[in-house]
């Protein structure tokens, strides 16, 4: 093939279509500007966590890291007003436990509602959807608190874990995702080969719905990590979660801006780590859904 023929073929309809989807300079500049606007508050928060209070009040404010991060973290963990170290550990335990429970139960329930046929499945799924329409946490605080008092769990982290182990949104999401991601023919073929229901779930369903599980895990972890209302009611000030610790820190050290920035940065860091861990699965799930759509 000659060079002229090669150029003609490369300039055909397929090449024109590819050029249509190329990002132009304006698109790239807009995306870069949006990225800077989104990331700058987080970056500035971490910068302030490395500075002193005098440096934080400078004009113009510092935009490069300082050398006081270890000192600020030490002061944060040593403060007896917020019990920040205890709150950080409690939040990690609560968020991780609830996330694992929600993902496992939601995936199992989604498989059952999407691929198994049993009497009353539509009624059960409709009941789960109804729970999503009612703000159960706000409306059920009083009876839920009475339940924890009767169990003797007030002031203990299991009182924050138990009410959130099952999530109606997670069941609905995994039901929809399993319906789209796993063809019925694949399940039937596994049954013909003699696979049990649990074998189908482990070998067929789980690999296919892994991106959906990653998205649900991230959303669940973020929701429970940022939970404030219920922990502030049921837990004691000396056994807090990270969000109530930050609130106590703000009340006790409202003018110590560096400590507030350090506490906020420490509370955001686990979310950044979780996003980095599940980011590839999330992007893969979004792209897979876009291709199927």
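^ Assign residues to that structure.
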């Amino acid at each position: 093939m000659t060079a002229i023929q090669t150029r003609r073929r490369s300039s055909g309809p397929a090449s024109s279509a590819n050029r249509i989807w190329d990002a132009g300079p304006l698109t790239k500049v807009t995306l870069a500007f949006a990225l800077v606007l989104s990331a700058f508050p987080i970056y500035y928060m971490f910068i302030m966590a490395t500075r002193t209070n005098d440096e934080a009040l400078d004009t113009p404010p510092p935009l490069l890291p300082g050398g006081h991060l270890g000192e600020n973290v030490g002061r944060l963990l040593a403060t007896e007003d917020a019990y920040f170290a205890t709150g950080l550990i409690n939040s990690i335990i609560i968020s991780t436990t609830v996330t694992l429970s929600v993902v496992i139960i939601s995936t199992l329930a989604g498989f059952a509602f999407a691929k198994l046929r049993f009497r009353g499945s539509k009624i059960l799924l409709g009941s789960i959807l109804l729970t999503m329409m009612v703000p159960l946490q706000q409306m059920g605080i009083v009876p839920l608190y009475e339940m924890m008092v009767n169990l003797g769990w007030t002031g203990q982290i299991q009182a924050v874990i138990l009410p959130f182990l099952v999530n109606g949104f997670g069941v609905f999401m995994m039901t929809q995702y399993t319906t789209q991601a796993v063809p019925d023919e694949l399940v039937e073929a596994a049954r013909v080969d003699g696979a049990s229901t649990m074998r189908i779930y482990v070998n067929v369903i789980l690999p296919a719905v892994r991106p959906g599980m990653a998205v649900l895990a991230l959303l669940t972890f973020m929701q429970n990590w940022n939970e404030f209302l219920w922990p502030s009611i049921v837990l004691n000030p000396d056994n807090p979660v990270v969000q109530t610790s930050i609130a106590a820190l703000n009340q006790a050290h409202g003018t110590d801006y560096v400590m507030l920035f350090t506490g906020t940065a420490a509370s955001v860091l686990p979310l950044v780590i979780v996003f980095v861990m599940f980011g590839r699965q999330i992007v893969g799930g979004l792209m897979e859904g876009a291709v199927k759509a």
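The chain has one domain: 83-292.
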